[in-house]
Structure formats: C-alpha cells, structure tokens
Amino acid sequence: MIRVRFAPSPTGYLHVGGARTALFNWLLARRHGGVFVLRIEDTDADRSSTDMVEGILDGLRWLGLDWDEGPHVGGPYAPYFQSQRLDRYRTTAERLVAEGHAYYCYCSPDAIKTKREAAERTGVAWRYDRTCLALAAADIAAKERAHQARAVRVRAPERRIGFDDAVHGRIEFDGSHIEDFVILRSDGHPTYHLSVVCDDVEMGITHVVRGDDHVSNTPKQLLLYDALGAPVPRFAHVPLIMGPDKKRLSKRHGATSVIEYARQGYLPEAMVNFLALLGWSPGSGDQELFTRSDLIARFALERISGGNAVFSVEKLDWFNQQYLWMLAPDELSRRVQPSLASAGLWRSSYAADRRDWFHAVLQLLKPRAKKLTDFVQLGQYFFADELVYDPTAVDQHLRAEGARDHLLAVQAALDDLDPFDVRTTEAAVRAMAESRGVNAATLIHALRVALTGRTASPGLFEVAVLLGRHRVLARISSAVALMESSSAPPQSHPS
Ligand code: GLU
C-alpha cells in the first residue's frame, strides 16, 4: 500500500511549486490506490497561522487534490498538525538518547557562537565539537539535577550515506561532513529533521516526493531512520520550478500563489494539466492535454525529469484556453458568473429566461478569451447598459467623412428588417454600402464602433443579432449624437 504525504509549512500561501509537489504525491497515490496524507508542519508557531493553513487547504481544494487523511478529515494517525504532536517528538528524542543514538548537549547558544566564530577566524568550517558527548556520567547527573537547559543531538556516524532517488538515481554523501545535529531544542521544540522523520515513520509513509531543495536534508534524515530502526521510504526529489529567465520562480515572474491564479480566472483543470507537465512527462509524444484520469493512469515517478522545469505563463494561458474551449455552455456560464458578478454585470436572468442568449454570447466571445475574467472586458458591450467608447475607434471610424449619414441610412434599413438575423443584417449593410457607393468595410467599421465602442469584436452581424434590434438602433442613435457633439467623446455614453 502506497502512502504519500504533502507536508506544507503554513508560513505562506500555496505556491505553484508546492502545488506541483502536492499534485505529484496525489497522482502517485491515486495511480496505485494508495493514501494521500496532508500533514501541516506548523512547529514554527511564530511563522505559522491558521489563515495560512486555510489558504493552503483552499488551494488544494481548488485544484481538486482531495486528501484521505489530514485536517478536517482526520485519520488513523491524527492529529495531522505537527504543533499537536510535540510530545511524540520529545518521547522519540528521549528514546534515541536512551538507546545511545543521541545525547544531551548543555552547551549554551552563546558558547557555541563563540567557538564557531573562533573557528571561522582561522578559516575552519565549524562542526559541533562534541563537548557534551565527552561528559562523564557524573557531570551529566549534576547538570540534570541543576535543571540545566539542554538540547538533544544525534551522534552522526562517520560513514558514507547514500540513497537511490527515484528522480536522480544514486546520491551519496560523506557522513564525516555531518555534525552531531540538534533534533530537540532546549525549549523542547523539535527541529524539522526530527519531526518530519518521526511523522513519516509513524504515519507509514512509503514514498517521500518533495522539492529538490530537500536533497541536502536527506542524509541527516537517513541517519534518523537508521537510529530509529525504521524502513527508509523511497525518495523522489522533484526539480525546482524556474522562471523563463532560469532563475528560481519568484514574485518577479508574476503570481506564484495558486489562489491568485484562481482569482485571475484560470481553470483548475488547466492548472492541474499544466503543473503535471512541469518536470514530468507521460512519454506520449506531442500530446499535452490530459484529463485527470489520464494523468492518474500514466503517472510514474520514474518519468520525472532531473532537469529544472520552466514556468511559462504563456503555456498556462494556452492550457487554459484549451480547457475553456472544452467547457459545455452551462458549465462555462456557471464559471463565468463570479467574474461578471464582481464587475456588477451579472443578471439573474442569464441563468433563467435569457439563458440561451447568455450561452450564445459566451460562445461568440470564447475564441478570444484566455481566462474566465476576460469575459468581463470582452463582453462589456453585451452585459453593460453603458457603452464604453474607445476614443481612437471613435476618431477613426465615427468622425470619418460621411459616417453619420451612413449610419443613419443603416439604421433606417435595419429598422424594419424582417427577419433580423445574421444573413439579413449582413445583406442589408452590404446593399446599403453599394447603393451609397462606399466600401462595405467602411460601413462595417463605423457600425462596429457604434455597437461595441471598439475596433475589434467577433463577427459584427453575430454581435448585432445578439444585441437585438432594439439595442442596435438605440446604439446607432447614441453614436450619431456623439458625432454631432463637437466636444471630445465622453468615456461612456448611454446606449
Ligand atoms: N515542511 C517542509 C516544507 O514545507 C516539507 C518537508 C518535507 O517534505 O520533507 O518545505
């Protein structure tokens, strides 16, 4: 039975790197019918907060990465917050002392600092000098009686330490470079190495999939597995995510928080597909679109690449567009609704008697949308009562020679057109152009600015039909009024 965990420290939001680590763990668990554990590593009380925890959970929920054990769902190894497991770490540290794998260190931080600085002045890399390992039993007993503050250090053996990483292959370290590191501080708080290994052992974690930045922590953790007599899980260290400039992904490159992408109107299924292919390849040629079940069916740690992955927003946009395309009309409108609502453009009729109209508008706008939020701007002239005119468009096409008369003629032709559909409106406008001796494009450009306020839109006659005759005629009147006013065009004008 495969048991994996995602173990975030709630000192920030869920960033894309963490989300990808969570996704790989989740895929591995789902692939093998295993268990995905969510464990909150909040031992650093000053830097952790419940808001951050909830933010991380929201990010995971948005991505659809459900956890089998962890916060809110519980499980056989509860609690899943390290801050509630401190007694276990203390007991384990005591056990390691009792079994001779660790020892009490009474050296004060100041004393260690002084020694370290002295060593550094002579150019020697400092390692704890094992002062307290050399203490006689009587000295220890005396210090204990005096309740002297003490940390617990592991005795690091001087041998080579290695492991077979699922991504990088064999990795070896020279154990003689590892000092006797602290696993329990004098205030009774565990260090990361102790808490992570204790929990991975107790929770029966079989595979540790985490970022490359933890490779250097692994030898110390291997020593702890060894000291505890526990089986070592399979490690897979996933290469870091870089920005397009090959520097570690950071805010300089844009949003790094998963929830920020949700707010910006990305679809979780696009994000999942995109993140899955950051450093992992399903080995299927050029295919890039994979449903969640495809990803599960194909996932294997061995296909994670050892090279760093590059995060490209353009690529994410591409995925998002593909997934937008695939959404059924009802689903698309359900997802667009929050963006329109926050722009004050949502009407309840869009989900009721104007549902078909709303679907048709979304279908028309869809080819130009990359994100859900794009529909607000793209569809402004459909959803808002006030038309926003682009001043350049007005100057170019409405203030052009003869535009006013052309538009009034078009208005008259459309007034009693029956039926009012794409074919008839187009034929009417083209016939009008011909009879007035102007290029059809000239009329179409002017009409487009009158109806949408812009120079670019989907097919103008589709737009006109969806706006409906009444609004088309009214907008032409508004445009004419605008042309007649000698002042500069206002930012917006009633349609
Ligand atoms: N809590 C650690 C972190 O957020 C992860 C520990 C691990 O995966 O071993 O970096």
CATH superfamily of the largest domain: HUPs
Q: What overall form do the CA principal axes indicate? A: elongated
Instruction: Tell me the number of strands.
Output: 13
Secondary structure category: mainly alpha
Our count of helices gives 21
Bin the helical content.
40-55%
CATH class of the largest domain: Alpha Beta
Mean pLDDT: 95
Bound molecules: glutamic acid
Widest sheet: strand ordering = 3-4-7
Rounded to the nearest angstrom, the distance between the terminal CA atoms is 65 Å
- Rg from Cα: 32 Å
**Total discrete domains:** 3
Query: In CATH terms, what is the fold-level topology of the largest domain?
Result: Rossmann fold
- Give me the CATH architecture of the largest domain, please: 3-Layer(aba) Sandwich
The portion of residues forming beta strands comes to 5-15%
Uncertain parts: none
Task: Tell me what the structure shows.
The chain is mainly alpha-helical and 495 residues long. It has 3 domains: 1-71 and 239-326, HUPs (Rossmann fold, 3-Layer(aba) Sandwich), CATH 3.40.50.620; 85-238, HUPs (Rossmann fold); 385-494, Arc Repressor Mutant, subunit A, CATH 1.10.10.350. It has 21 helices and 13 strands. The strands form 6 sheets. Strands 3-4-7 form a 3-stranded antiparallel β-sheet. Helix 6 crosses helix 7, helix 17 packs across helix 19 and helix 18 (422-436) packs across helix 19. The protein is elongated, with a radius of gyration of 32 Å. The two termini are 65 Å apart. Glutamic acid binds at residues 7-9, 41, 196, 210, 214.
Strand and helix layout:
Blueprint: E1 3-6, H1 16-31, E2 35-38, H2 50-63, H3 86-98, E3 102-105, H4 109-121, H5 137-145, E4 151-154, E5 160-165, E6 169-174, E7 182-184, H6 192-202, E8 207-211, H7 218-228, E9 234-238, E10 241-242, H8 258-263, H9 268-276, H10 292-298, E11 309-310, H11 313-326, H12 329-342, H13 355-365, H14 374-378, H15 380-383, E12 386-388, H16 391-398, H17 403-415, H18 422-436, H19 440-452, H20 460-467, H21 469-484, E13 492-494
Helix pairs in contact: 1-10, 6-7, 9-11, 12-13, 16-19, 17-18, 17-19, 17-21, 18-19, 18-20, 19-20, 19-21
